[in-house]
Write a structure and sequence with these properties.
Blueprint: E1 2-10, E2 20-31, E3 47-60, H1 65-83, H2 93-120, E4 128-129, E5 131-137, E6 140-146, E7 150-155, E8 158-161, H3 168-174, E9 196-197, E10 206-211, E11 217-221, H4 223-226, H5 231-238, H6 244-257, E12 264-272
Antiparallel strand pairs: 1-12, 2-3, 3-4, 3-5, 4-9, 5-6, 6-10, 7-8, 7-11, 11-12
């Protein structure tokens, strides 16, 4: 497998600060013989399993609290991963289920950390963050999500939304109260029903295991992008034969040209599988 990953974030044209944060990570499990008297060729010279993790978080809460929430959530997520003694680096159905369950537990722990942080600093009370994460290992994609940042999959030119916006307006669409095309401009489109906050209690976490195929492209983005660009335009840019970093630049630039009313973040991964 070959993967080309790019990422970019911009504060936009209307905001003084950027409350979005992103992270792209590479994970490896490696075995390399050091000393042996076994005949040459008995052991592999080097064996490596490689996974890639991508996450976007859109903070909220006013002043600097949104930045603190999104930054803290990502840092805590990595700390929790480092503390895990047995990384799962092979994803059959059983192990994929274990990874999804672990991610759900970790998202719940993020809420506890934000809660404790606000208890020690009352100025941070009410802060929160969305979080959308994708983990790819060989031909497997794990997606974990809360809030209204999104994950998309472009396959053979067709754009698929992998996540559901956890917002009041999406609930209205699901109930048939408004049409889907009305959602992008509805005044309640940013009222979240799912978010990592300083409150106690469980948060809704959406979990998916998606098989990848050659040529797939994955996009993680905050609502500063999707508020400005429709699916057709996103698919057009994502489908261009350009490096992932240039694709991110094009997506962010188009969002800025369309008004750039919020912070804009895009992470793009392009996958190739050798036959």
């Amino acid at each position: 497998m070959q993967v080309d990953i790019g990422a970019l974030s911009d504060p936009g044209k209307k905001r003084a600060n950027n409350e979005d944060h992103f992270l792209v990570m590479e994970f490896r499990r490696t075995m390399e013989p050091m000393l042996t008297n076994l005949p040459e060729g008995t052991l592999p010279a080097l064996h490596t399993d490689t996974a890639h993790g991508m996450v976007v978080a859109d903070g909220m809460g006013g002043a600097a609290a949104g930045e603190v929430a999104s930054r803290t959530a990502i840092r805590t997520l990595i700390d929790l991963a480092i503390q895990t003694p047995d990384w799962i680096m092979r994803l059959d159905e059983e192990h994929a289920g274990q990874v999804l369950e672990r991610m759900n537990q970790r998202f719940q722990q993020l809420q506890e950390v934000l809660h404790d942080k606000a208890q020690s600093d009352p100025k941070l009370s009410g802060m929160g963050t969305t979080m959308t994460l994708a983990l790819s290992l060989e031909a497997n994609l794990i997606v974990c999500h809360t809030g209204d940042s999104r994950a998309y999959l472009l396959r053979e030119g067709e754009l698929h939304l992998l996540t559901r916006d956890q917002t009041m307006v999406q609930s209205l669409v699901d109930a048939g109260a408004i049409r889907p095309e009305e959602a992008r401009r509805h005044p309640m489109r940013h009222v979240l029903t799912g978010v990592i906050t300083t409150k106690s209690g469980q948060i809704p976490v959406e979990l998916h295991h998606v098989p990848l195929v050659d040529g797939d492209r994955v996009l993680l983005c905050t609502d500063g992008l999707t508020d400005m660009l429709g699916d057709a335009e996103i698919a057009q840019v994502l489908g261009a034969d350009t490096p992932a970093s240039e694709t991110c630049r094009a997506l962010v630039d188009r969002a800025l040209e369309a008004g750039g009313k919020d912070n804009v973040t895009a992470v793009v991964a392009k996958y190739r599988f050798e036959s």
